User: What shape does this take?
Amino acid sequence: MNSNDFLHLMPLLILTFGAIINMLVISVWRNHKIIYVITALSMLAAFGSLLEQRTLGPHHIDPLFIIDGFAVFYMGIILLTALLISMLSYAYFEQREEQKEEYYLLLILSTLGACVLVLSKHFASLFLGLEILSVALYALIAYLRKRERSDEGGIKYLILAAFSSAFLLFGMALVYASAGTMEFAAIATAIASAGGLSLLMLTGFGMMIVGVGFKLGVVPFHMWTPDVYEGAPAPVTAFIATVSKGGMLGLLIRFFMEVDGFRYPALVLIFTIIAVASMFVGNLLALMQRNVKRILAYSSIAHMGYLLVAFLAGNEMGVQAITFYLVAYFITTVGAFGIVAMLSDKVRDAELLSDYKGLLWRRPWTATIFTAMLLSLAGIPLTGGFVGKFYILAAGVNTGLWLLVVTLIINSVIGLYYYIKIIAVMFQQPDAATEATARLRPAIYVASMGTLTILALLLVGIGIYPTALLNLIATVLDSYSTVAFR
Assistant: This one.
């Protein structure tokens, strides 16, 4: 490696050094505020180093990594989202008795794993990033050890993630046996030379889809999602729903664009079935829930189905639609779980619908922000979620994916019901019991409200004026991206 390679890998190096510094400080002096500051500064510095790379152009670090416009943008939204989650985490863990410092170490490491995923162009770096992300998540999910559901969620995720990693590894082995290479671009060359997908290659891709589908939480690999979302601490749930899935989705886009997987009807059919099933299963099961975290869990399954509509478009417009929708979805999801975290107490998270009864009358601004987040998830106009969903529909119509387009529209109507159900509960009159349990410590309220207000303003901003973000996405992805569009 030369100095230019180190410069392009600076975000990863900064996160690595941040994790090392946290370990050293924890071994000497446990202080929640200092560890949080180190974590936040590490993520800010890593994001700042990305700004320098905008003018450097695509750079290959053979054989593992590629740093281009696509990777820089996705790393940017991953780092900013992780920073916002760390800010919400400080307020959340400040009122808890557990040792808090190791949480931030795990948060940095899992963010590092997600960044490695979006840089990968080789199976080795893919698996390395996936395991760094996953191993840290095992501990993050079960971090609140005194909660039974937290331990249960961590164990379930551990067991199922192990199975999915086994499928992914075996799939990689089959692809390697067929293509004789583990580099994405070389795999595409091998497929072209063979005149199409062999049975061995198709089987390998199918097993890899199992591993990827687990990380994305799409049907039929979604069974872990509601239990893990419910059991994990609220900020960790936000991290799983955004950073973890965003990193894997970025990798999936790059891999399938590189190997031109959309040329093969079998692969398109598999993803079409997954998309349709995810939209219907996610929304229909969400209708039956009365736990807010489980509602948002099933909602996330449906939203991954929405994103697969643009993914199956397989063109430049589809990638831009996915990217815009991810930005809106990240803002919305972090904001929604931020509300859950802010209203939680030492004993449990504020996850029941009854916890939100009369919230409008008790905490008007908090209820307003939560309403904006829910309306964005539902795709209501003047929010980022509406523009993102419209852009995904446009990508689907442009490519003639009529089945997926109709399915998306139907499911958007279904999803509106359970979002409105939460909003309706907030508009009810509070009872005495709710008033007694809804008191928040002033310091926690002030620490969280600033972050949530910024998120709400961003959400409405990109909903009213999406042009700036759309132009940024188009410029960054088009200027020096090496992702090949069909």
Q: What stands out?
A: The longest helix spans residues 148-179. Confidence is low (pLDDT under 50) at residues 479-486. The longest strand covers residues 59-61.
